[in-house]
Amino acid sequence: MSIVKFLTSKVFLKQLLLAVVVIVVLSFLTMKWLKLTTNHNQFETVPDLKGKTLDVAKLELKDNNLEFMLQDSANYNPKYPKFSVIEQNPLAGSKVKENRKIYLILNPSGYRKVSVPDLRQQTLRNAKPVLKALGFEVGKITYRDNIGKDMVLGLRYNGSNLEPGTKLEKTSKIDLILGNGKRPSN
Questions:
Q1: Is 90 found in the same domain as 53?
Q2: In terms of domains, do 154 and 121 share one?
Q3: Among 153, 157, 135, 136, which residue's Cα sits nearest to residue 144?
Q4: Mind listing the pLDDT tens digit for each residue in 38-54?
Q5: 52-82 pLDDT per residue, tens
Q6: Is residue 128 part of a domain?
Q7: pLDDT tens by residue, 80-135
Q8: Domain residues for 124?
Q9: Of the residues 64, 80, 106, which one is the last residue of a structural domain?
Q10: CB-based contacts of 76: which residues, under 8 Å, 6+ apart?
């Protein structure tokens, strides 16, 4: 039998038709099964958790059939209470599938601590940007008799002398003791 006769025979055409029907039925059943198992067009709305404590956030997520995962919380935000949610991903109002993980970033208990740099014998012009870059604020400036005008002679915090390397919270106010350009009187 030649190949052309075989391709035009009733047996081949019946087998081809049967194969097409099987593929269509399997595709239809697969699509129905996927709709059922993936909850097609069924979404949960992500609640707004910003400013809420972890316990409240857990309850709200559980009520919405969602899970949570905590992420590192290094940036303190004074506008929010300690240990409350300051960021979430996906954002509030997003539509997600059931049991989706919502990533939460909590507000730490305070600003992180930073080492005080050694600014002795540097000018005020250099000391200010270094302190600001580290997150400190320049507090009160006092002058003492010293030949180096605007030269940093010492650092103080809350009335106590500060040694280089001391750890203070970011945004702490550091007072500077500077030289006034006059020779000390003996």
A1: yes
A2: yes
A3: 153
A4: 777 778 889 999 989 98
A5: 998 999 999 999 889 999 887 767 888 888 8
A6: yes
A7: 888 889 889 999 999 998 889 999 998 887 778 889 999 999 999 999 999 999 98
A8: 113-179
A9: 106
A10: 107, 108, 109, 110, 111, 112, 170
Best CA proximity match to 101, nearest among 129, 63, 61: 61
DSSP state string for 22-68: HHHHHHHHHHHHHHHHTTTT--EEPP--TT-BHHHHHHHHHHTT-EE
Q: Which of 68, 84, 106 is the last residue of a domain?
A: 106
pTM to 2 decimal places? 0.55
Q: Do residues 173 and 136 touch, judged by C-beta distance below 8 A? A: yes
Distance, C-alpha 33 to centroid of its chain: 38
- For the chain, how many structural domains are there in total? 3
CA dist 114 and 182 (Å) reads: 34
Give the C-alpha separation, 157 to 116, whole Å.
Answer: 11
CATH code of the domain containing 130 = 3.30.10.20
Same domain, 28 and 51: no
Distance CA 72, CA 170 (A): 18
CA distance 6 to 20: 18
> Whose structure tokens read 């702490």?
172
> Phi first, then psi: what are they for 136, rounded to 5°?
-85, 160
**CA nearest 85: which of 68, 99, 63?**
68
